[in-house]
Amino acid sequence: MNILDRIAATKREEIALKQLVVPEARLRDSALMQREPASMKASLSARSYGIIAEHKRRSPSRAVINQALTVQQVVRGYTAGGAGAVSVLTDGTYFGGSLEDLLLARAVTDLPLLRKEFILEPYQVLEARAHGADAILLIAALLEPGQIEALAGQARELGMEVLLEVHDREELDKSPLGSADMIGVNNRNLKTFEVDLATSHSLAGLIPDTALRITESGLGKPGELRELRDSGYRGFLMGESFMKQDDPGKALKAFLKTLEA
Ligand SMILES: O=C(O)c1ccccc1NCC(=O)[C@H](O)[C@H](O)COP(=O)(O)O
């Protein structure tokens, strides 16, 4: 079984349990349901380099990235450092994240928040909204086209945007692209962890202009972002290269200064 299949199997078990412990009615009672979500697409589009800075303690491909900082320290730093949006990993088992991280992030920033999660069920979309997310991630490799449409429709009804993630031509061709506000190309093969920025370059021209193009993973050099921008990308999802620094927000600020010089 590859890692993505393992993550999905764990996730299904977790969702079944969580639905028993926290019923949907309780999620609907969250005070954050009254908050108007912000547009991540607009925030990223307003910048020449729309960085989605990710809070990421660890991952299946990297046992430890940064366990020393609080989520508030990281997200405050990203906000001051010029991020266009913040991505918060909420998976506990494989990434050491939680829904509490999303709540804490919400408490310290007005930037749009992406719930970075392996979403399989409508329950998780409601969870995202109830914990302050403005956008959700849908991973094409995990979902059938009909599921993408249904989950994206639910997100829209709840006022959130959708980042649809693909990794290859097959996933792009099978996906209902009109369901997404943003289409992300993950440079990391989630089954092998291999990272290749050529993935984004080769798929850029196949993404419809109705969606904002986002390139994800393995980014760290200003020159790479300039080339990806030339290919049509306006959003750049970056985790490890900032999180491995002692001060991720300062690292982001310095990175943007070099990029925009
Ligand atoms: O990062 C991983 O090892 C990983 C493994 C399996 C599934 C997903 C994984 N990462 C999720 C992501 O998409 C990245 O966290 C995100 O794009 C940022 O990537 P990076 O800048 O390389 O940290």
Provide a descriptive summary of the structure in words.
The protein has a single domain, classed as Aldolase class I (TIM Barrel). It is 43% helix and 15% strand. It contains 12 helices and 8 strands. The chain has helices at residues 3-21, 24-28, 40-45, 71-81, 99-108, 122-130, 145-157, 169-174, 198-203, 222-230, 240-243, 248-260; strands at 50-55, 85-89, 113-116, 135-139, 161-166, 182-186, 212-216, 235-238. An 8-stranded parallel β-barrel has the order 1-2-3-4-5-6-7-8, surrounded by 4 helices. The longest helix has 19 residues, at 3-21. The model has no long low-confidence stretch (mean pLDDT 97). It binds ligand LARABZUK. The ligand O=C(O)c1ccccc1NCC(=O)[C@H](O)[C@H](O)COP(=O)(O)O binds next to strand 8 and helix 11. Residues 4-254 form the Indole-3-glycerol phosphate synthase domain.
Mass-distribution shape: globular
Q: What would you say the CATH architecture is?
A: Alpha-Beta Barrel
CATH topology group: TIM Barrel
What percent strand?
Answer: 15-25%
Distance between the termini: 46 Å
Which structural class best describes the helix and strand composition? Answer: alpha/beta
Q: Share of helix among residues?
A: 40-55%
Mean pLDDT: 97
Low-pLDDT residue intervals, each spanning 5 or more residues: none
Question: What is the β-strand count?
Answer: 8
The largest beta-sheet arranges its strands as 1-2-3-4-5-6-7-8
CATH homologous superfamily?
Aldolase class I
Give the cofactors and ligands: ligand LARABZUK
Rounded to an integer, what's the Rg over CA atoms? 17 Å
Alpha plus pi helix count: 12
- Number of spatially distinct domains: 1
Name the helix and strand elements from N-terminus to C-terminus, one letter apiece. HHHEHEHEHEHEHEHEHEHH
For this structure, what is the CATH class? Alpha Beta
Major β-sheet, in short?
Answer: 8 strands, parallel, barrel
Pfam family, one: IGPS
Family: Belongs to the TrpC family.
Domain Indole-3-glycerol phosphate synthase: 4-254
GO molecular function: indole-3-glycerol-phosphate synthase activity; phosphoribosylanthranilate isomerase activity
